[in-house]
Design goal:
The complex is a heterotetramer. Chain B is of the alpha/beta class. Chain B has ten helices and twelve strands. By secondary structure, chain C is mostly helical. Chain C is elongated and about 75 Å long. Classes of the chains: A alpha/beta, B alpha/beta, C mainly alpha, D mainly alpha. The interface between A and B is large, with 49 and 43 residues.
Chain lengths: ~325, ~325, ~300, ~300
């Protein structure tokens, strides 16, 4: 296995609300090899966004990391003091957020927001930083880069703003880029442009960890995929294996829901029931309530992530044993 | 899908005034028919005017131009009061399950509101029974009768919105992005529900969405909108399999296919940004982004011409000549 | 409005349904939640209740009348006979405080109520109807808000003359403008909500929409505004009386007592400090209660 | 943006006219002849007649209002009945004191209020937060005259640090300014805290932190710039409450400012003086609001630069 640029080991994080502890992230292990694009897919509330924000140290009150480590290029970053964490954020590990409409400071010029990281980490003089920003704007495909530098966020369209976000994240050439639902808020034609841009970024050697609920985006971009459900990883495999031979009932449910949409016909495949409440997760497998193959064993003990061969792992008592469909 | 017309619009347009004399051309001369019991899908990117069109057709917004017929009777110049006898036949479902239900009312009162507005049931008890039937019909447990909206999940709230819409047996329900805010598994549950309700009660749907695969599944006919106008309208199967307008073709190619085997196909992408609806370009609205635009496109705005059941607003119907794409292979 | 505690109607008497009826969160559940989460708000509610009771039962709580003088032991410090001492006219301070609480509470509640009704009505009309009426109402509000509140109160008192009823009228005229501006922006925000558009789509008449959708959702704002405006009315009245423009002797009001006591500040400080402390306590209580209610009633809070 | 400011300017002029009309009407509907009431019982009708004519009170109301308005524009507010001197002169002298008082009070209030608000917001639900919020609630709840008297009693009477009352040099303004500013410091800190807490939840704050900004960097470069907008609007509203408070503080510390003049005018039923002081203070408030609006549109690029 070549060296992993980012490794998350047994990460757990919870929200401590008045009503009790919400276990949003539960013993999650993720590896992002150098120069690869790794995806985390799951429905809303499954903890995928929490996981990456926890490892970036961006959890807001009342969220807190409860356990586990995050290794960036061979250095543990969760236990670092705040000063050193800030030194890494934006320099070695950077993040692009979901909604370009609200992720840029409305009262500050776009150019200034992009050069800010350079001044923070490279204390680069303003003129040089501006040149760097113009080059980066051109790299991410923003027309009239020089003029755009001085405009305000509300003067740019959604697509342009997301390109600015990507430029802002890439300006210090980070080792790892985390993208939290980067194209969800965009229209499909603009989304295609941004996805193509992200593919190009990866070819320049940056490792990318992308979060999405859209299976299409994951299929087009990722080399390796983790599927999350109710705070836990239920299946992980390289993209081709996952899409062709999904083992976990939840993954199969997701894939058949999506493909039945495209097949037409009357009845769409669905996953019955609702996502369990994270305050009181059911004993045993958290998918047991909605799984049609659920048996006594599923309700009692929580299956652990079994390796089924060439990097394909699944968290299910029955899916593992040669059940490849 | 019967063949007599429920609703017809001719050259319908709507402009919103902006500061300093500028105007936003939300919808510009759209003509379309909605047949009884059919599902007409309206698809397009944000800002293309699909939501505005939806509200124009049920007269929640009054048009600045064009004419509107409801079951053969012209209603363009009807006052709100005069139109109220048709209001009951036209209902609306919203995208945001959290904002479309009054947080201060219980589920019972929300669903009962249309019933009370038209005095459908004689007594309060009968109304409650009718509400319970409706809740069963949309799959919300009866014991949540007196719960407040914030005590429901997103999917359940959307079901309550649907129950409210079907309470007085409308002839047409405009669904404005009803499933866009939901996850795919819950989304499919709602789409199945809408399909079953249509089979039972025979009402027509005007299904508005930016998600092409959802529209493809649920619609009989589809209209593709761009910058306030309809660039292509026709049976769903033909539109998705053999699009003729270049914009439709680019729209279809842009969808990220959930199939890793098709990831390295270098598909031609639309360049540039979505133009602003304030100063519309001359000639064909799409010519600024269309790679095949000719001098004629820049000067003359194409009109919707119908050919073999399909209406396309493009001089050259270039979409048909682009590399033919087979539909995605099926999954397990 | 708040869901009343509902017995299940005889909807088919289905036993399964009856046993698991989800209770609607009634007004009393809200108050119970307020009590559990915010002890301070409850304590201040108790303090306000005490003041109201003291005001109502003032005559029974003290042997003296607030008017009769006893020049022999004027300016005596707090003692057995006079728990809070006597003022320059020998009148018992505790008695005057009790009668004063009657005036001050009425001054706090009545004008706020009148101001709220006028302000909320104009605010909703301006918000819902918009256009010209909105512009006219807002310009009148601008004119009223143009005055510093004390100055406006002084001017109106000048035209109307002193006395209790005039103070009440004055304070309502001073209060209404800020209330109407807040309620107007709230009405505009609510008007754009999708559930109002849904009601319009159903065909519910505008009047009904106003009563069933817009007003109940304005309620939390109105209640919070009320609890926060009462103290500001009390403060304005006490300042007016302090300047000798509000309540006139022989009536008793805390503001007046503070003013009367000012001349003897250095020999009998309690003459002014006792009523001032009382004003502060009541105002503090209303502010705490107002903050507590805002957290409980604010729908945003509810959805967390 | 220019169009925006012109609209605001017209509105301000309209409000000012409305205010002048309102004051004029209010002071005229009082029954009886002001001169007679002022001169008391013993005055003989002849002198009352002469004084009334001299002050032009026998003219029809419209003429009086027109003459008054044209005078006001030229800065001549007529002569005060009770003090016999032109109102404008009286006010110019008094305005200096009120301006000093209000400015110092505002300075005290905003510096204290903003710092407490920021600290309370950053250390949300911490000890400091509860302490500052308790203090500011106390600040908002204490009547101005109570604060003034306490300060006067403790610092002036007992400790003799500062003069009890009167005006000689800046030090006699310290106590009144604190008394006046204490109340608005409370409301400023409460507003700054709630605005800042809301802003710190925004997405662009996450972006700023993801870029590697430390807490201080996020606060200064991103949060505070956005927090300034509602605070500026608050400052405009504060002007009117500062002037209200000034009336009382000036009375207690016997500083003859506009507030003091207004109280004298009311007690002496002196219409021109009352009209002058009322018009003057409302003018200050309206101009203050106008300045705040302009500052707001300069600070917020979304308004300043039309797309």
């Amino acid at each position: 296995m070549e060296k992993n640029m980012l490794e998350i080991r047994h990460l757990s994080a919870s929200f401590f609300t008045q009503k009790g502890e919400v276990k949003a992230v539960n013993d999650v292990c993720i590896e992002v090899p150098k120069g690869k694009i790794v995806g985390i897919v799951g429905e809303s509330g499954c903890g995928k966004s929490m996981t990456v924000r926890a490892c970036m140290g961006l959890l807001k009150y009342p969220g807190r990391v409860v356990g586990g480590e995050a290794w960036l290029d061979g250095k543990e970053i969760l236990s670092l003091p705040e000063k050193e964490k800030c030194a890494i954020r934006g320099d070695e590990i950077a993040m692009v957020f979901q909604d370009p409409m609200t992720s840029l400071n409305p009262v500050v010029r776009v150019g200034k927001q992009v050069t800010e990281a350079l001044r923070l980490h490279r204390n680069m003089p303003a003129a040089e930083a501006r040149r760097e920003a113009v080059a980066m704007f051109e790299a991410v495909g923003i027309p009239e880069a020089k003029k755009r530098l001085s405009s305000y966020p509300h003067q740019l369209s959604g697509g342009l703003r997301q390109r600015v976000m990507i430029a802002m994240a890439m300006i210090c050439h980070p080792k790892v880029l985390i993208a939290d639902e980067p194209t969800t808020a965009l229209d499909v034609t603009v989304e295609a442009q941004i996805l193509r841009l992200m593919k190009k970024l990866c070819s320049d050697g940056t490792s990318v960890l992308i979060i999405s609920h859209n299976l299409g985006v994951i299929a087009q971009l990722c080399d390796y995929v983790y599927v999350m459900y109710a705070g836990r990883i239920v299946e992980q495999a390289d993209t081709f294996t996952l899409f062709e031979e999904p083992l976990h009932p939840y993954t199969r449910g997701l894939l058949s829901s999506v493909s039945s949409l495209r097949r037409g016909g009357d009845k769409l495949d669905t996953i019955p029931g609702v996502v369990p409440n994270l305050l009181h997760l059911p004993a045993g497998c958290s998918f047991s309530l909605r799984c049609e193959r659920c048996e006594e064993k599923c309700r009692e003990c929580l299956p652990d992530l079994m390796d089924v061969g060439d990097g394909h792992k699944v968290r299910c008592h029955f899916a593992g044993r040669g059940e490849k469909a | 899908m019967s063949d007599h017309v429920l609703l017809e619009a001719v050259n319908l347009s709507k402009e919103f005034p902006l500061s300093r004399g500028k105007r936003v051309h939300a919808v510009s001369d759209v003509s379309l028919k909605v047949y009884e019991g059919e599902t007409l899908g309206i698809v397009g990117e944000s800002g293309c005017g699909k939501s505005t069109l939806g509200r124009l057709l049920i007269r929640l917004l009054s048009p600045t131009g064009g004419r509107l017929w409801f079951r053969g009777e012209e209603v363009t110049s009807f006052s709100d009061q005069a139109f109220s006898k048709y209001r009951r036949q036209l209902q609306l479902i919203f995208q945001d399950p959290y904002a479309s239900l009054d947080p201060r009312m219980t589920a019972r009162d929300i669903i009962a509101e249309p019933l009370n507005a038209y005095h459908v049931c004689p007594t309060k008890k009968a109304t409650t029974e009718r509400v319970l039937e409706l809740m069963e019909a949309v799959g919300v447990p009866g014991e949540f009768l007196y719960r407040y909206p914030h005590q429901f999940s997103g999917g359940q709230r959307q079901r309550i919105g649907i129950a409210r819409a079907i309470a007085i047996d409308p002839a047409l329900i405009v669904c404005d992005e009803p499933v866009s805010a939901l996850d795919v598994s819950v989304q499919n549950q709602i789409l199945n529900l809408l399909r079953d309700l249509q089979k039972e009660r025979g009402m027509a749907y005007l299904f508005i969405s930016h998600d092409l695969s959802v529209v493809r599944h649920i619609s009989d006919r589809v209209a593709v909108m761009f910058l306030g106008t309809i660039c292509e309208i026709g049976p769903a199967k033909d539109i998705f399999e053999a699009p003729q307008h270049p914009y439709t073709r680019f729209l279809l190619d842009a969808i990220p296919q959930p199939d890793p085997r098709r990831r390295d196909e270098e598909v031609p992408l639309l360049k540039g940004e979505i133009p602003s609806p304030v100063n519309l370009p001359e000639g064909c609205l799409f010519h600024t982004r269309c790679p095949y635009a000719t001098e004629k496109c820049r000067r003359e705005r194409p009109v919707l011409r119908s050919e073999a059941g399909r209406e396309v607003a493009c001089h050259y119907r270039v979409g048909a000549t682009l590399p033919q794409k087979n539909s995605a292979p099926e999954h397990v | 409005m708040f869901g009343k505690k509902k017995k299940l109607m005889a909807a088919g008497e289905d036993v399964r349904l009856k046993s698991q009826i989800g209770e609607a969160e009634t007004f009393w559940d809200l108050m119970r939640r307020l009590a559990k989460e915010n002890k301070l708000a409850v304590f201040s509610a108790v303090v306000i209740l005490l003041f109201i009771l003291a005001a109502i039962f003032a005559p029974f709580l003290t042997p003296y009348s607030y008017k009769d003088m006893d020049l022999l032991n004027r300016l005596s410090p707090p003692s057995g006979a006079h728990l809070l001492g006597t003022d320059e006219g020998g009148r018992d301070i505790l008695t005057r405080m009790l009668y004063g609480s009657r005036v001050s509470l009425m001054i706090g509640v009545l004008p706020t109520l009148l101001g709220m009704i006028l302000g909320a009505a104009l605010g909703i009309i301006a918000g819902v109807i918009g256009g010209k009426t909105d512009a006219i109402i807002m310009r009148i509000a601008d004119i009223t808000l143009g005055f510093p509140s004390m100055l406006l109160a002084m001017l109106i008192m000048y035209t109307l003359g002193g006395g209790l009823m005039n103070v009440v009228l004055t304070l309502s005229l001073v209060n209404w403008a800020s209330v109407s501006r807040i309620v107007r922006s709230e009405a505009i925000r609510l008007k754009q909500n999708e559930y109002v558009e849904a009601a319009r789509a159903i065909g519910v008449k505008k009047r009904v929409i106003l009563w069933r959708h817009i007003l109940p959702n304005c309620l939390p704002t109105l209640i919070v505004l009320f609890t926060l405006n009462v103290p500001s009315s009390i403060l304005t009245e006490s300042s007016l009386s302090f300047l000798g423009l509000g309540i006139q002797v022989p009536d008793a009001s805390w503001g007046l007592m503070v003013n009367m006591g000012r001349q003897f500040l250095y020999i009998a400080p309690w003459l002014s400090l006792v009523p001032s402390a009382a004003i502060m306590l009541v105002v503090l209580a209303f502010n705490f209660l107002g903050d507590g209610l805002r957290d409980v009633l604010d729908p945003h809070q509810k959805n967390q | 943006m220019k169009q925006n400011i012109i609209k605001r300017l017209l509105q301000a002029v309209f409000v000012l006219l409305g205010v002048a009309l309102l004051i004029f009407i209010m002071l005229r509907i009082v029954p009886g002849n002001p001169i007679a009431t002022m001169m008391g019982e013993h005055a003989d009708p002849a002198t009352i007649e002469r004084m009334t004519a001299e002050f032009g009170l026998d003219q029809p109301a419209i003429v009086q209002f027109a003459r008054y308005l044209s005078g006001a524009v030229r800065g001549d507010f007529g002569t005060s009945y009770s003090l016999g001197r032109p109102v404008a002169a009286l006010m110019r002298q008094a305005f200096g004191n009120t301006l000093k008082l209000a400015f110092l009070a505002a300075l005290f209030a905003w510096i204290l209020g903003i710092t407490c608000g920021i600290i309370a917001a950053v250390k949300k639900n911490g000890l400091l937060d509860r302490l500052f919020m308790g203090l500011s609630l106390l600040g908002v709840s204490m009547p101005v005259f109570m604060v003034a008297m306490l300060l006067q009693y403790v610092f002036a009477f007992h400790l003799h640090w500062l003069p009890i009352s009167g005006v000689d040099g800046l030090k006699s303004f310290i106590l009144p300014a604190i008394a006046l500013g204490w109340n608005s410091a409370g409301s400023v800190s409460r507003l700054v805290r709630s605005t800042l807490i809301e802003i710190l939840q925004e997405d662009y704050i996450d972006t700023a932190r993801a870029k590697g900004n430390r807490q201080m960097g996020v606060l200064l470069r991103h949060a505070l710039r956005n927090a300034m907008l509602p605070v500026v609007t608050m400052m405009a509203i504060q002007i009117s409450s500062l002037l209200s408070g000034a009336v009382i503080t000036e009375t207690i510390f016997s500083i003859n400012g506009i507030g003091q003049l207004a109280v004298q005018a009311i007690n002496g039923r002196d219409i021109p003086l009352l009209q002058g002081t009322a018009l003057f203070s409302t003018a200050i408030v309206i101009i203050g609001n106008l300045l705040a609006d302009c500052l707001y549109s300069v600070l917020d690029p979304r308004i300043r630069k039309e797309a």
